[in-house]
Task: inverse folding
């Protein structure tokens, strides 16, 4: 049998032209069509010992779903993914596959790894467009009731997995739409709201009762949920507490946390003005402070809202930026002006307390810190002023404090995170599990989903045995 030729170059994913996309909110990445998906799937060499599966936090059988694409069984491919991942259309768009499953792809040793995320998106979108979204046969009810708090990626994963195991699940969401950070934090051009709604509808079809506008910690406490008959509780309330720089001028009008900026744009639909008259002052010159995906999202949204100039101010160099390379490249091509090795020291206002500028200092890189990145050090005497009228602070978020503050029996870490066993999701309070950003601090969608899957397995064991 002749040796198979290795196809080392990936099939590129099309993108909207940068000059056009800054004028709209449509998806930037266009995704594969059928021909492109088949060509990319054919590159997979179907390893005997696939390392890609081990690189996936939710343990998708990647070779199996790619083989189904090769066979043109696209619906089958989507359903194979859903055996382990209830949110495939979301993961196919926003997960950092390049540092997870694709990082361990064997082809990467000689060329481009398989574009696993793009193939996952193709399969999920095909299933949806064909109106053949199937629900797996569910087992008989166990008679156990579970409360899942927070409908972000961790909560949705726990809810879906437990429903498929026969448990009765109620998912509580504080906001008016389910999806958590998926709807309030990620812009339409990266993750359309209709996609999130579609995935949430699938969770509901599994039998999960989704209740919005229900703030656990205020509407009911965790202890009151147990009193109402729930046998276990999962806390997945995320990292919704913004961090600030603690510099003079942060209380001026025109200073936003990235959390508020993106929530107004995404969940409150400022991106659809004037259909939705959400109050948001854009300004002509916007400075976004930070180097992660959230900073890229905030900056790129600002352009689409009409800002003439958008700066991204980051205290390290481009090499140290935690954002995905793809998102940095998208921001660059759209015209975001990067100010690397720069740190704000003061925000300057006018006599009416509106932002008029930002005093910054140049930085240089010193020795590596605990994160492994070189520590930024101020350059003495290098202060300068950046003329801006809006400042968006995107330097990270801390765990949501509401449930820790209203649940005396739960152990909390020094950063306000719920302490949970990483192998089980169990907390210090019997019957209560936790996972995602409320435990780890701000992280990725797929890591939150992985924590959700881990917790769901442990919760199922607890619900069936009663052993803690």
Result:
């Amino acid at each position: 049998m002749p040796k198979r030729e290795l196809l080392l170059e990936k099939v590129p994913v099309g993108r909207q032209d940068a000059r056009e996309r800054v004028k709209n909110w449509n998806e930037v990445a266009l995704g594969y069509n059928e021909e492109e998906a088949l060509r990319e799937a054919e590159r997979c060499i179907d390893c005997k010992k696939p390392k890609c599966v081990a690189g996936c936090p939710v343990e998708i059988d990647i070779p199996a779903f790619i083989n189904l694409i090769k066979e043109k069984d696209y619906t089958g491919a989507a359903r194979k993914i859903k055996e382990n991942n209830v949110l495939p259309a979301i993961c196919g768009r926003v997960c950092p596959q390049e540092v997870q499953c694709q990082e361990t792809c064997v082809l990467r040793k000689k060329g481009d790894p398989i574009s696993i995320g793009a193939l996952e998106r193709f399969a999920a979108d095909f299933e949806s467009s064909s109106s053949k979204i199937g629900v797996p046969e569910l087992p008989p009810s166990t008679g156990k009731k579970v409360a899942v708090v927070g409908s972000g990626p961790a909560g949705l994963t726990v809810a879906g997995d437990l429903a498929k195991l026969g448990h009765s699940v109620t998912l509580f969401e504080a906001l008016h739409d389910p999806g958590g950070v998926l709807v309030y934090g990620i812009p339409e051009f990266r993750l359309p709201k209709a996609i999130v709604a579609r995935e949430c509808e699938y969770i509901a079809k599994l039998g999960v009762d989704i209740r919005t506008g229900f703030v656990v910690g205020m509407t009911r406490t965790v202890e009151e949920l147990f009193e109402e008959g729930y046998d276990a509780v999962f806390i997945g309330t995320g990292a919704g507490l913004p961090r600030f720089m603690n510099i003079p001028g942060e209380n001026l009008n025109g200073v936003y946390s990235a959390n508020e900026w993106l929530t107004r744009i995404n969940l409150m639909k400022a991106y659809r003005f004037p259909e939705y008259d959400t109050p948001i002052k854009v300004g002509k010159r916007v400075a976004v402070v930070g180097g992660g995906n959230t900073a890229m999202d905030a900056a790129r949204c600002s352009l689409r809202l009409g800002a003439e100039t958008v700066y991204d101010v980051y205290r390290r160099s481009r090499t140290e930026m935690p954002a995905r390379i793809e998102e940095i490249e998208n921001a660059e091509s759209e015209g975001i002006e990067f100010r690397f090795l720069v740190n704000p020291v003061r925000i300057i206002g006018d006599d009416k307390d509106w932002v008029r500028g930002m005093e910054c200092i140049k930085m240089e890189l010193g020795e590596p810190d605990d994160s492994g990145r070189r520590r930024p050090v101020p350059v003495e005497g290098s202060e300068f002023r950046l003329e801006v009228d809006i400042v968006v602070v995107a330097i990270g978020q801390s765990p949501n404090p509401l449930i820790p503050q209203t649940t005396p029996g739960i152990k909390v870490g020094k950063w306000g995170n719920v302490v949970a066993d990483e192998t089980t999701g169990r907390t210090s309070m019997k019957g209560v599990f936790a996972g995602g950003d409320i435990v780890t601090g701000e992280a990725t969608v797929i890591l939150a989903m992985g924590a959700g899957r881990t917790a769901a397995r442990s919760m199922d064991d607890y619900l069936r045995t009663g052993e803690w």
Notes: The longest helix spans residues 445-465. The two ends are 56 Å apart (CA to CA).
